[in-house]
Amino acid sequence: MVSQVFKTLPEPNVLFDMLCDVCDPNERFYVINNVVYNRLKRDNRLTSLVTTLRPHYHKSKQFYLDNIGSNGYPSFLTVMRQLCRSWEYSYTSKLKHTRSTYDLILTIFCDRNDYTSKIEKPSSNPNSSNNEKQIPKHENNE
Fold it and tell me: What is the pLDDT averaged over residues 21-35?
């Protein structure tokens, strides 16, 4: 079991390839706001993301994905935070107040050029029967 939310850990490219197309260009981080959410919704990318992520979630936790359609943006941010936590990416969440409205902004800190290096490659040991991706461990090179 990988975590309480995920049965298996999805590849980061599932999310980051999609975000590269809709987020403003920046080498070090992705900013997810209501504009990005609406772009994903308009291009029907949210439904494809939910379909891709569903097999990775435990059955009892799939309501997080179902709520993206009904509850919208806050549920989408919850799923993004779950993914970031499982991949051990740093993120910040801010509440921005503009003209009597509030906007939740999630910033994921990730180098766009090497986000795939954070996930450990599956073991090539033929005796290993566990094909699930494990949550990566931080390495301290000091």
Answer: 85
